Amino acid sequence: MVKNQFPKNLQRALSDNKMSQDRLAKHLNTTQQTISRWVTGINEPDFGTLLEICILHDETPNSLLGFDETNI
């Protein structure tokens, strides 16, 4: 079973880009509480929102979700 890596990778992307949860929420037209739920692993964004996060942070869906070529 593959462990969900999205919360950790989202937190890393935020940190690498010096972006707060509040700022990401504003970019995505959502709330900081929603971002917090993603970072803590309570919820996950829908696919369209995941793609917006990827574009904003210059990431791939695979990198944010924790998949790489060796895992596939």
What share of residues is helical? 55-70%
* Alpha-beta content class: mainly alpha
What is the count of β-strands? 0
Span from first to last CA? Answer: 13 Å
Task: Please give the largest β-sheet.
Answer: none
Order of helices and strands: HHHHH
Radius of gyration: 12 Å
Strand content: under 5%
- Principal-axis shape: globular
Output mean pLDDT.
Answer: 91
**Low-confidence sequence ranges:** none
Count up the helices: 5
List its salient traits.
72 residues, mainly alpha
Describe this structure in words.
There is one protein chain. By secondary structure, the chain is mainly α. The chain is built from 5 helices and no strands. It has helices spanning 6-16, 21-28, 32-39, 47-57, 61-65. It is globular and about 35 Å long. The two termini are 13 Å apart. The model has no long low-confidence stretch (mean pLDDT 91).
Summarize this structure briefly:
This protein has 72 residues and is mainly α.
